[in-house]
Recover the amino acids of this structure.
């Protein structure tokens, strides 16, 4: 092994790190360590001048290992790896010490924080000695795409990819395309006809030569990896079909919460308490009416039905506030003399044009009443003979502090939106994860919002969380662009920090096959050893730790590397490193 | 006890000049910037909420709208341009109407035409009365007390006083019932009535709260000058008319003339200040003028204006012009007094200090209740 020549770069992150960590002392102390050629501190390592510093030092001082002490590697590891690449160094000869999230942001004692920062940097320095250069792996990409779900998100993605000349298999479990929008009358805040937006798209999909549409079909199992997936489907005619595709978009959408779970609202017991979707159907039919066909005099709209309440769903369903305002407008136009009550918890008008929509709606003679959606839900009861209305809503109005009675003849419940019951099955089929409330989780909430931890699988629309049409389409097109880019490149890089079986040591117990969460290990019966599919392997290390004979070695996370890192962490001061023998 | 909301109420209040009430989304900035709110006496957000929800009983029992002198800080700081200042103003008009059991105030406030025609009728009635009952004296000298004998005018003044006073007093009783008696959430111990009285008297006499609220002290001065002038005129006309309306022309330093000049100056200063303000619409208080605002200042101005002419003609011995000016003076005064004192804007002279009194009574009583509750719990 060539001699290590390590460069250390301690980042100030403006004042983010520097205010709590004495970065200069850290750099000076670490510079004394064995094999360290140079140690610097700089205001913003991730900036172009910061990266140039590394690149120039590599060339000038002939460095062959780099340690950056800065933020979380989730944020800038790739930045620095690219800097190494630009300087002609293998990007795996790099290690990052997180002294921001793990030190400066979470500690209050400057001296102790500086000590901890030094410990972390020492660990990284010792570890980086044992890093080995690794080469990137890439695979061919099948130009076809599988899209699961024919709602507005799935349809938008389908059309975009198909219009780019690539094959799309669109799978929809229902008899018709369109998803939840099939039952929606108007959009908010523009009050356009949803059907006029939706129906032409459906027709285009049906007519498109690049799209193969499978209605009333569900996906049971998918095998393969990014660029090369396979599935077998049974169409509604009963035909079996084998599909091959390089990427997957999951656009399975969501469903409405069942409001009869909230006893206060008497849904399914009181005849004129309807869900938002039932009211949409009423609007599509053209007449706002009570169950007996009469016109309602008092219309109440209740927000947050099942949303933002830990007993039901803690999250905000995002679209209901504006939908409620849309209803208020539609009722006001259809029934000019009616009394409209908008019973809300907070008016969330965050999107483009929403606040204006709220302002305009509030001027249409609508009584807005605020309730506590966490602890104090309104109660709907039948009205008495003297009340001159069918129902009474009893509530504690927050802005006035009064207990009030609201007359109502028709109550619209703005029901929460929730994941489908079988969301977990689909997640398992395509190999993606879910967050606490059964919505699919994205790779990174800010920086990678449509990808998943499984390469080649994207989530778009409201299967990722409640969303309006605009956001669903934005996501669909974002994922489409990602997939078209991959198809156009023809090949995709796959991570090489994977597990590798030492066939001489493997005893063929197959423990690794049982523990692998990605089904990446298969068994070679002839040789009686396990074989890792490097493309499916995510390098999680589970097999490596479970292997009883130590036959599995995880690249970039070898025992030697990890033990040396621990050794470095435990060093109290600068001391000579004892070479740890690989177990 | 739940209160039923009343969505129709806001249409009613709109007739009193409320506008943009629906723009309010209750951020509370108005209450926060108001220099007159204090712990236990909060406005205008709470009142706007009661308006939006149609909580009429709550509004009727709240003295707060009267505590506002309309500096306009709330309207300037409203992020939604809901004009809380003007909403409070319209609420004062509405409250005046509901204190008034005759329904006259509501009619005058809601209809410009009704107010105008009623005044024109009174104006012509006064002139007609002089035409029918008065004879112009033959003497070339000014014989005002022959034209309009002071004891008859004084008698008529007293009749008018009793007539309007009984309306005002019954309205005040009504106000007391609505604010204090009907509000079952608070019980006021008798001794508090004495303790809180001095503040109400002080506010009545000085209107000191305006200085807390108006950054321009000219407004306070104008308002106070007009108020003191009016009180002086009232006292002189009702109790000392035979001293005030004399044939004898006193030297200019005589108290009778000095007092007359003071009243006139107060009226002119304030009405011109208000009229220019309402015309230019720069200050929040002057931005929105209800018909009652305009009629009020114009009549007060005309009252002073005709008064000046009576004086000039009389001092210069011009008999006939004096009589005509006198008739016009009374023809302006009677409609002014009849429509405004008990049924419109002028009644705030009584309602505002009383409301300050009631508000502090309630506040202190509530504080006592809280204290007793805490003591009860700790025991």
């Amino acid at each position: 092994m060539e001699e290590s020549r390590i460069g250390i770069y301690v980042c100030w992150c403006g004042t983010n790190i520097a205010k709590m960590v004495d970065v200069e002392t850290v750099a000076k102390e670490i510079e004394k360590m064995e094999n360290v050629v140079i140690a610097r501190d700089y205001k913003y390592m991730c900036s172009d001048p910061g990266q140039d510093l590394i690149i120039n030092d590599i060339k000038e001082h002939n460095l062959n290992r780099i340690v950056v002490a800065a933020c979380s590697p989730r944020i800038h590891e790739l930045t620095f790896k690219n800097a190494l690449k630009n300087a002609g160094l293998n990007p795996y000869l790099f290690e990052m010490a997180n002294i921001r999230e793990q030190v400066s942001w979470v500690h209050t004692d400057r001296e102790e924080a500086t000590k901890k920062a030094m410990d972390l940097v020492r660990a990284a320095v010792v570890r980086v000695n044992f890093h080995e250069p690794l080469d990137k792996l890439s695979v061919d990409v099948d130009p076809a795409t599988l899209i699961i779900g024919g709602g507005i998100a799935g349809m938008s993605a389908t059309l975009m990819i198909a219009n780019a000349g690539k094959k799309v298999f669109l799978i929809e479990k229902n008899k018709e395309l369109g998803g939840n929008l099939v039952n929606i009358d108007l959009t908010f805040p523009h009050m356009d006809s949803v059907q006029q937006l939706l129906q032409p798209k459906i027709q285009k999909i049906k007519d498109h030569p690049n799209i193969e549409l499978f209605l009333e079909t569900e996906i049971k199992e998918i095998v393969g990896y990014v660029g090369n997936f396979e599935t077998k489907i049974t169409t509604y005619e009963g035909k079996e079909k084998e599909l091959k595709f390089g990427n997957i978009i999951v656009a399975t959408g969501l469903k409405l919460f069942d409001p009869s779970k909230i006893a206060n609202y008497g849904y399914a017991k009181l005849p004129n308490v309807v869900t938002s979707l039932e009211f949409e159907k009423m609007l599509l039919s053209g007449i706002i009416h009570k169950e007996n066909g009469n016109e309602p005099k008092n219309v109440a709209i209740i927000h947050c039905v099942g949303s933002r309440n830990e007993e039901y769903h803690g999250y905000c369903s995002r679209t209901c506030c504006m939908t409620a305002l849309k209803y208020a407008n539609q009722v006001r136009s259809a029934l000019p003399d009616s009394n409209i009550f908008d019973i809300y918890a907070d008016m969330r008008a965050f999107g483009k044009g929403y606040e204006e929509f709220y302002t305009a709606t509030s001027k249409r003679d609508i009584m807005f009443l605020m309730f506590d959606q966490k602890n104090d839900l309104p109660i709907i009861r039948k009205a008495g003979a003297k009340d001159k209305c069918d129902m009474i809503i009893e509530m504690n109005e927050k802005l006035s502090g009064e207990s009030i009675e609201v007359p109502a003849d028709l109550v619209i419940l703005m029901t929460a939106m929730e994941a489908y019951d079988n969301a977990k099955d689909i997640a398992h089929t395509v190999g993606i994860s879910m967050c606490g409330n059964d919505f699919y989780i994205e790779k990174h909430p800010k920086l990678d919002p449509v990808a998943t931890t499984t390469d080649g699988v994207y989530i778009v629309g409201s299967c990722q969380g409640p969303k309006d049409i605009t956001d669903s389409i934005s996501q669909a097109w974002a994922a489409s662009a990602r997939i078209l880019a991959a198809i156009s490149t023809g090949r995709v890089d796959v991570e090489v920090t994977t597990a590798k079986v030492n066939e001489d040591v493997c005893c063929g117990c197959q423990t690794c096959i049982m523990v692998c969460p990605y089904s990446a290990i298969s068994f070679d019966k002839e040789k009686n050893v396990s074989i890792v599919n490097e493309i499916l392997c995510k390098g999680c290390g589970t097999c490596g730790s479970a292997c009883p004979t130590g036959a599995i070695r995880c690249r970039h996370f070898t025992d030697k590397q990890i033990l040396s890192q621990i050794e470095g962490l435990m060093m109290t001061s600068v001391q000579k490193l004892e070479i740890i023998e690989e177990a | 006890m739940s209160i039923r909301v009343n969505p129709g109420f806001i249409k009613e209040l709109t007739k009193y000049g409320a506008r943009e009430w629906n723009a309010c989304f209750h951020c509370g900035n108005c209450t926060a910037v108001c220099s007159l709110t204090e712990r236990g006496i909060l406005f205008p957000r709470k009142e706007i909420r009661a308006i939006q929800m149609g909580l009429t009983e709550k509004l009727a029992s709240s003295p707060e709208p009267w505590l506002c002198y309309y500096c306009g800080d709330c309207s300037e700081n409203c992020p939604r341009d809901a004009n809380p200042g003007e909403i409070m103003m319209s609420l004062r008009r509405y409250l005046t109407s509901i204190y008034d059991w005759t329904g006259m105030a509501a009619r005058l406030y809601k209809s410009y035409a009704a107010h105008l025609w009623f005044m024109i009728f009174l104006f012509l009635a006064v002139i007609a009365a002089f035409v029918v009952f008065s004879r112009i004296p033959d003497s070339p000298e000014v014989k005002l007390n022959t034209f309009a004998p002071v004891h008859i005018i004084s008698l008529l003044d007293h009749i008018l006083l009793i007539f309007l006073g009984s309306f005002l007093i019954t309205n005040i009783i009504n106000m007391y019932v609505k604010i204090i008696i009907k509000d079952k959430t608070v019980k006021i111990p008798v001794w508090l009535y004495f303790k809180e009285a001095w503040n109400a008297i002080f506010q009545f006499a000085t209107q000191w709260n305006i200085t807390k609220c108006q950054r321009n002290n000219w407004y306070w001065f104008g308002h106070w000058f007009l108020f003191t002038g009016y009180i002086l005129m009232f006292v002189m006309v009702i109790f000392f008319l035979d001293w005030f309306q004399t044939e004898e022309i006193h030297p200019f330093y005589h108290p009778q003339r000095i007092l007359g000049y003071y009243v006139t100056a107060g009226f002119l200063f304030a009405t011109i200040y208000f009229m220019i303000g309402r015309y230019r619409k720069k200050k929040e208080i002057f931005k929105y003028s209800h018909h009652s605002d305009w009629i009020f200042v114009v009549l007060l101005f005309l009252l002073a204006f005709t008064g000046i002419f009576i004086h000039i003609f009389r001092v210069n011995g011009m008999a006939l012009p004096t009589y005509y000016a006198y008739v016009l003076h009374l023809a302006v005064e009677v409609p002014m007094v009849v429509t405004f004192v008990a049924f419109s804007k002028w009644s705030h002279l009584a309602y505002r200090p009383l409301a300050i009194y009631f508000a502090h009574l309630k506040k202190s009583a509530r504080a006592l209740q809280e204290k007793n509750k805490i003591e009860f719990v700790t025991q």
User: Anything to note?
Assistant: Residues 104-361 of chain B form one domain. The CA atoms of residues 107 and 255 of chain B lie 41 Å apart.
